[in-house]
């Protein structure tokens, strides 16, 4: 099981930007895919995006054109760059792997709050 730690959340006005980080406990080259999920207040957790070891990216429609994924292998970190943030992006953001998903294992997440 891979340990993942999310960071970088905060309070931002609508239209602003944040960069979230997901740091893994082992080389990200050994992880086939890293997903980002989010859980808005009072709602279920939802998938946001993924980045594979082949550099394939996919995003939920609501964030396409605003969010982008990148990775730094030397730091074992995947970044979620979030631009033009909207109040509906307010949520706790989590990163995870397929194995962690199967075992329903989640980190603490990082809170993103977007004010209008």
Question: Could you describe the 3D structure shown?
Answer:
By secondary structure, this protein is mainly beta. The protein contains one helix and ten strands, in the order E-E-E-E-E-E-E-E-E-H-E. The strands form two sheets. It has a six-stranded mixed sheet. It has a four-stranded antiparallel sheet with strand order 1-3-8-7, with no helix packed on it. The chain is globular and about 40 Å long. The chain starts with a strand and ends with a strand. The model has no long low-confidence stretch (mean pLDDT 96).
Q: What is the makeup of the main sheet?
A: 6 strands, mixed
Q: Let me know the number of strands.
A: 10
Proportion of residues in extended strands: over 45%
User: What is the N-to-C succession of helices and strands?
Assistant: EEEEEEEEEHE
- State the helicity in percent bands: under 10%
What is the number of helices? 1
Radius of gyration equals 13 Å
How does the SSE layout of this entry go?
Blueprint: E1 4-7, E2 10-13, E3 18-24, E4 33-39, E5 46-52, E6 57-59, E7 67-72, E8 77-82, E9 91-96, H1 98-102, E10 110-115
Parallel strand pairs: 2-10
Antiparallel strand pairs: 1-3, 3-8, 4-5, 4-9, 5-6, 7-8, 9-10
Condensed summary:
This protein has 116 residues and is mostly beta strands.
């Amino acid at each position: 099981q891979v340990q993942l730690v999310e960071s970088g959340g905060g309070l931002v006005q609508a239209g602003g930007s944040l960069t979230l980080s997901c740091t893994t406990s082992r080389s990200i080259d050994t992880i086939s895919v890293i997903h980002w999920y989010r859980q808005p207040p009072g709602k279920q957790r939802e998938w946001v995006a993924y980045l594979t070891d082949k550099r394939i990216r996919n995003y939920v429609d609501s964030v396409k054109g605003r969010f982008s994924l990148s990775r730094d292998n030397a730091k074992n970190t995947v970044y979620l760059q979030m631009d033009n943030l909207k109040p509906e992006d307010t949520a706790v953001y989590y990163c995870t792997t397929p194995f962690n998903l199967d075992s329903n294992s989640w980190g603490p997440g990082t809170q993103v709050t977007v004010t209008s």
